[in-house]
Amino acid sequence: MPSNRFITIDVETANSWFGSICQVGVVVFTDGQITDEWETLVDPNDDFDGFNMRIHGITPEMVIGKPAFSDAFARVTSLVGQDLVASYGHFDRSAFSQACELHQISRMGNPWLNIHPVVRRAWPDMYADGGFGLNPVCKYLGITLSRHHNAIDDARAAGMILLRAAEVTGISPAEWLARNKRPVRLPGAPIINTDGPLIGESIAFTGALEMPRQHAQDLAASIGCSLSNTVTKKTTILVVGDQDLTRFAGKEKSSKHIKAEALIAGGQYLRIIGESDFVAMVALDEADHS
Fold first, then answer.
1. What domain range is 106 assigned to?
2. Is residue 120 domain-shared with residue 10, that is, in the same domain?
3. Counts for the chain of helices (H) and strands (E), in that order
4. pLDDT under 70: residue ranges of the chain
5. Runs of H (alpha helix) within 131-268
6. Each residue of 116-153: b (16+ CB within 10 Å) or e?
7. Model confidence over 77-101: pLDDT tens digits?
């Protein structure tokens, strides 16, 4: 594998909104070795949702006196420099983008690699059609992940997966940026954009959306998602109407929402996001291709 330096980043959030970052983990890899690590809790200045706290174990009391996102971001950029940034999925990049917008900070201009498509292409017999959650992939590859949903542990594991993919394919981390744009063996409907950043993800929608449901499904297909009318063991993203995620909405959760939370509690790789976060993900991909 050629000499290279890349940085993996992982975040945890206080609630369902991506910008509510409460923990950041950064791991620096140089020539195939870990050369630096940094992690911090972050005070998101936002409410903590009970569901999120059960997932990552971070509470409001734990972030009292911790850095604001703007301070944490300054440390991240000093570690990253101009090099390749990678994350396990599209969500961490979207979270950084939303938090930067909230704090009126310019986003990092670094090339950013989504490791999900790397896994699909490096091990197509196992993961071409999905099922590439961080925990099961680590188990398959024999990579230690002692504290799943801890930012530094997840970032470290993501980097080790990327290194392993480089070893088995001969494709360096930087070269994967171009390789991810090439087709992969995939069944499914032709309307799905097989170059989309979320290819292999299965998405469902619930609650009252601002946009028409058909438009939401078209946007999901445009970034590579397969579509489902129900939440199943194959679902990896559930998009919920923003008003249905707010603490004081006074509404009961939908059956899809309840089932998704149960699947997550049982260990399934699945993210529950708001409509605004979904729209932001689509916009981020459109900006990459403009």
1. 5-179
2. yes
3. 12, 9
4. 1-3, 182-191, 245-251, 289-290
5. 134-141, 151-169, 176-179, 213-222, 242-245, 255-265
6. bbbbbbbbeeebbbbbbbbeebbeebebebeebbbbbb
7. 999 999 999 999 999 999 999 999 9
The pTM of the full predicted model, rounded to 2 decimals, is 0.71
Residues 21 and 140 in one domain: yes
| Strand, helix or coil for residue 261 | helix
The span from the CA of 37 to the CA of 189, in Å, is 42
Q: Over the stretch 5-19, which tens digit does the pLDDT of each residue have?
A: 999 999 999 998 999
Tell me: do 121 and 13 sit in the same domain: yes
CA-based nearest residue to 40, from 60, 10, 17, 18:
10
Burial of 181 (C-beta count, 10 Å sphere; 0-12/13-18/19+)? exposed
* 184 domain residue, yes or no: no
**Angle, helices 91-102/69-80, rounded to nearest 10 degrees:** 130
Q: Which residue type, as a one-letter code, is found at position 220?
A: A
Q: Are 40 and 23 in contact (CB under 8 A)?
A: yes
The CATH number of residue 49's host domain is 3.30.420.10
Q: Which pLDDT score is estimated for 251? A: 58
Judge contact between 227 and 234, C-beta under 8 A: no
